[in-house]
Amino acid sequence: MILVLIGYMASGKSTFGRILAEKLHYEFIDLDDYIEKNEKSTISDIFKIKGEIHFRKLETQYLKELLESKKDLVLSLGGGTPCYSSNMNLILESNDVKSIYLKASIPTLMARLKNEKGKRPLVAHIETDDMLAEFIGKHLFERSPFYSMANVTITTDNKSLKAIMEELVLELF
Ligand SMILES: Nc1ncnc2c1ncn2[C@@H]1O[C@H](COP(=O)(O)OP(=O)(O)O)[C@@H](O)[C@H]1O
Ligand SMILES: O=C(O)C1=C[C@@H](OP(=O)(O)O)[C@@H](O)[C@H](O)C1
Ligand SMILES: [Mg+2]
Description:
Helices cover 55% and strands 14% of the residues. The protein is of the alpha/beta class. Bound molecules: adenosine-5'-diphosphate (ADP), shikimate-3-phosphate and magnesium ion (MG).
């Protein structure tokens, strides 16, 4: 089985994915890391040098490659992956693939993103808290319809990684 983690930037996909894979004895791949490794470039540089559209094409290409070639995998996507091309349909229609939406509120996402803006090109330039809150709100409005198509949704606000794990294991097995 492939478990695909989706959700907004800073919802915990990369962090939680790694420990979920450990618990299940599955391989773990973070799609952003996989793209960086294969392209020999950072996500920030890909955005800067080749542009976001090129990044979106790479996301789709590597997502397809992984869904077709792997099993017993936890795959953490980037926040935008399910929202471009027909990536979410591909995930939903693939055999033995389950999608999990890690849902988090704007205040939770704000608090985390404020500390880690540098590595995320879409928010790196946003200066004030008000502007960041407005950006996340608008972006979530556009993206939530894709995230909500996931097989399982876990609300993660104020929950430890352990609590999220317990909830997910109950939902999945
Ligand atoms: N359940 C949680 N409780 C507290 N902090 C969390 C939780 N999940 C993730 N984080 C923290 O939030 C930040 C963003 O997490 P990350 O896994 O990089 O998110 P994503 O991959 O979805 O962008 C990291 O600093 C991580 O440690
Ligand atoms: O939401 C997005 O469009 C993006 C999210 C990032 O991943 P995280 O969700 O892991 O931060 C990364 O793929 C890129 O900066 C674009
Ligand atoms: Mg991540």
